[in-house]
Design goal:
CATH superfamily of the largest domain: FAD/NAD(P)-binding domain
Radius of gyration: 23 Å
Structural class: alpha/beta
Number of domains: 3
Distance between the termini: 49 Å
Number of helices: 12
CATH class of the largest domain: Alpha Beta
CATH topology of the largest domain: FAD/NAD(P)-binding domain
Bound molecules: flavin-adenine dinucleotide
Strand order of the largest sheet: 8-15-9-10-11
Low-confidence stretches: none
């Protein structure tokens, strides 16, 4: 395995693990703010910046060390360096002690992606940030403008708002989380507005620059295409990513990529070269760590010839995903709006968490469970959950979608009481 940076990749270093670690601390702060209604008078939460940074670093190091140890225990050689193809069966690796040539029978390309940086913005890692500068930031912002209201953007809003920053979100459309369930987006928008987040809807950022304001303060000015201007101490760009394929010299191996730089693959993750595989963000499927790792396992099975026994192809339409905001938002499979657009007959049932005792006990009745099923057969086709622990609860619907279970299978499961999962059974009725 060739790695130029940290074993475990972006998920360990910059993305999933550090972001969710900080969001967990932010969640503890938000939780403490709701505590009054639970019979407690006052809880003080002062953020310990060093303690928080140490915690993020410790979890990252632990994850990377565990992965490195696991690989070593399987006899994997880890070569530290940057690889590029030199032919259909060879790579050159630039290491600290020179260039090393490695030949292979089969190769897997899994070089991930990096933040997309438009030409109107020059991140400096100090005040103008990308997703890679935030977990944790060098200095906690007093105020921050988040540009981009997709999954990453809204997670930033939630985290910085939890830590007490004044947050403005630039939303290019009329809804945060474009493409997601409008009911879920509406609950999130309400939460943001309730926490004092400013939403600039229908605006696209066109410039982000550091300027000195009239009071002599060093600030960041974000200008939008509709003439609106926001001034905050920091800004963060969350407008997507680009694949790390441009420096691999793919042509030397005869591997094709599309106009966006992504490498097309078949259902076994094989590229146009039968002995070269691609997985993860560069495959242009779903940019999720969870998907990348399952693709990796499929590649391992295929390259070892194990796919000749009964084999289930990855169905990307059935991948569960979650947004770690307050409340959490998770979905899987067919969405209500998608079904209507396709003209497909569906049955949609929606149950608010407010009807379950556990949500009241937890003093957080926000959100709902929505299940989309086939009206003729009862087979579960998809669902979305907004509320506490949505990222965990969606696993039940994900399993039902993958295994073609019916709503009756869920209703007849003997679930725990009192538990948020009871809303799943109610929604399945
Ligand atoms: C802020 C943020 C939060 C996220 N949170 C989540 C989440 O909660 N859940 C989730 O499922 N997904 C999340 N994602 C997405 C997830 O991080 C990515 O989908 C995942 O990391 C992609 O994995 P990968 O293996 O394709 O690439 P990576 O994890 O990026 O790994 C690629 C590796 O290749 C190395 N590399 C690149 N080029 C070379 C080269 N030429 N030679 C040698 N090594 C090279 C890199 O150093 C890197 O270690 C998040 C993304 C962002 C931006």
């Amino acid at each position: 395995m060739i790695e130029r940076d940290v074993v475990g990749g972006a998920a360990h270093l910059w993305d999933c693990i550090p972001s969710k670690t900080m969001i967990a601390t932010g969640g503890a702060i938000s939780y403490s703010e709701r505590i009054e209604g639970m019979g407690l008078a006052d809880v003080t939460t002062a953020v310990d910046n060093d303690g928080l940074t140490n915690r993020v670093e410790a979890i990252k190091d632990r994850m990377s060390a565990d992965t490195t140890q696991l690989l070593a225990s399987q006899g994997v050689e880890i070569v530290r360096g940057t690889a590029r193809f030199t032919g259909p069966h060879s790579v050159a690796v630039d290491t600290a002690i020179g260039t090393r040539e490695i030949n292979f029978d089969a190769a897997l390309i899994a070089t991930g992606s990096r933040p997309r940086i438009p030409d109107w913005c020059h991140p400096d890692g100090d005040r103008i940030l990308t997703t890679r500068d935030c977990y944790p930031p060098r200095q906690f912002p007093e105020s921050i403008t988040v540009v981009g209201s997709g999954v990453t953007g809204v997670e930033f809003v939630h985290m910085f708002a939890s830590f007490g920053a004044d947050v403005t979100l630039v939303v290019s459309r009329q809804q945060v989380l474009p493409g997601k369930d409008p009911d879920a987006a509406a609950i999130l928008e309400n939460d943001f507005l309730g926490r004092g987040v400013r939403l600039l809807k229908g605006a696209r950022a066109t410039a982000i620059e550091r300027v000195t304001n009239d009071d002599g303060h060093d600030i960041v000015r974000v200008s939008c295409d509709d003439g609106r201007v926001v001034e905050t101490t920091h800004a963060v760009l969350a407008i997507g990513s680009v694949p790390n394929t441009d420096m691999l010299d793919l042509a030397a191996a005869g591997v094709e990529c599309d106009d966006g730089g992504y490498i097309p693959i078949n259902h076994h993750c094989v590229t146009n070269q039968p002995h070269i595989y691609a997985a993860g963000d560069i495959s242009g499927k779903l940019p999720l760590s969870s998907v990348a790792s399952v693709q990796g396992r499929k590649v391992a099975e295929h390259v070892m010839g194990l796919h000749t026994v009964e084999h289930r192809h990855l169905d990307y339409d059935k991948a569960a995903s979650a947004i770690f905001t307050e409340p959490e938002i998770a979905d899987v499979g067919l969405a209500e709006a998608e079904a209507f657009a396709m003209g497909r007959k569906i049955r949609v049932t929606k149950v608010p968490f407010a009807t379950t005792p556990k949500a009241l006990i937890n003093n957080d009745p926000r959100g709902f469970v929505k299940i989309v099923s086939d009206p003729a057969t009862g087979v579960v086709l998809g669902g979305s959950i907004v509320g506490q622990h949505a990222a965990e609860l969606i696993s039940v619907i994900a399993l039902a979608v993958t295994a073609n279970l019916t709503v009756t299978d869920i209703v007849e499961s003997l679930l725990v009481h009192p538990a948020l999962a009871e809303a799943l059974a109610q929604a399945a009725e």
